[in-house]
Amino acid sequence: MTAFKQVPAIYHRQLGRFLVTALCDGYMAYENFEIFTDPDQNKLAACLAAETRVAPPVISINAFLVRDGVRTILVDCGSGDIMGPTCGHLPDLLEQLDVPLDCITDILLTHIHPDHSNGLTDPVTGMKHFPNAMVHVHQEEIRHWFDDDAKAKATERQKRVYFDAGRIQITPYRDGCVRTFDQECEIFPGISVLPSTGHTPGHSCFIFRSDGEAMIIWGDTVHVPEVQLAYPDVGMIFDTDNLAAARSRRKILQRCVDENLLVGGMHIHFPGFARIRQGYDGEYRFVAEQWYHAAHHGQSF
Length: 301
Ligand SMILES: [Zn+2]
Prior knowledge:
The protein is α/β, with parallel strands linked by helices. It has one domain: Ribonuclease Z/Hydroxyacylglutathione hydrolase-like (Metallo-beta-lactamase, Chain A), CATH 3.60.15.10. The chain has 8 helices and 14 strands.
């Protein structure tokens, strides 16, 4: 059987003055349901089957490039080259777009986890992949992943995959190129941060507003929409604090409904844009945005 190569996973979406480009770094295919904290595998499988998804799930990894003619921003930066052959495509996609890595002015990190932050640094040489970028991240992310006491309590896998990898990725930027925040605030005109902790101690969303439109890039608020919109309390084993993550998930989902926010999701199936509606049974419904054939914008980037 011939395996056809897809076109590059790049999708542009204009949001007022921002040109938002979804980039699919790749995907993770899981072999069992143990990534969920809920032991009811029949329920989980039924959610996926109802949405015609494979079970156990395949989860996209997206990052978002946001350009406004002044800044060239990446929201998360892919998984680098240590998560296997299905991941790590972000640098190729930036090359396809003619966006050299040294043109990235800012990296907004939703959190420090390998599929979001391992694209920052070459782990072999310790060199930054983005030599001119300022990294913006919640201060609790830095505090927690550099905390030796927290690391001592972690499993061997967590030590290696989260604590060690996080330190390798962030350390080169601690030469004055990490800017932290600790509360909801505006970091650039029209771009604000909304902490939503639980998945990790400083997990945060970013909200972009322009010309009456608003989009939230919600990081890992939801990993598997087919399951976690119907059952927002279902957590993932990757959560640092399941209960806090579920509380944050409910809060963000309700805000998406109330404010009709466009959602950009790291683990929503590419191209990763959707809106959230109230579900028929009181929970939530995921409405993927239609494909626009062209991103209309007046500026050239
Ligand atoms: Zn993730």
